[in-house]
Design a protein that fits this description.
The protein is α+β, with helices and mostly antiparallel strands. It has five helices and five strands, in the order H-E-H-E-H-H-E-H-E-E. Helix content is about 45%, strand content about 20%.
């Protein structure tokens, strides 16, 4: 079963960040993030496949998620990722959530992430997450 392509509304309404079938990427700044969008579009990704967030949007949302996490979540990998994402957002990183439902799409995203020196690239599976770089 293919994962559903998410929208910004889906992300906003969800209490957790677990975008199965997507890759979360952070780049040094918003200019590099814009370059990544251009590269992904050139690789065939549709506009609706790419959700873009600036640092201030990401920082606010991540701060809320980290602070509202339960004590039990403090031991899981999800909260570790959220803290990592929050630190990167506070540094001013730009963000993408890219719909990549198959290995070919993942390869394209990974190539762009490496070429543009992404700070992180995490692929979300149903039961696990995978660092791509």
């Amino acid at each position: 079963m293919t994962a559903k392509r998410l929208t910004k509304d889906d992300i906003r309404q969800s209490g957790v960040l677990n975008p199965v079938g997507h890759i979360v990427l952070a780049f040094d700044n918003e200019a590099v993030t814009a370059d990544a969008v251009t590269a992904l579009r050139a690789a065939g990704f549709a506009p609706e496949d790419i959700l873009q967030y600036n640092a201030s949007e990401a920082t606010q949302r991540l701060r809320e998620r980290v602070h509202s996490a339960s004590q039990a979540a403090g031991f899981g990998y999800e909260i570790v990722l959220m803290r990592r994402y929050l630190a990167l957002a506070e540094e001013g990183c730009g963000w993408l959530i890219v719909y990549a439902p198959d290995d070919a799409a993942v390869e394209h995203v990974t190539e762009v992430a490496k070429r543009l020196a992404a700070k992180c690239a995490v692929r979300y599976h149903r039961l696990a997450n995978e660092d791509l770089i």
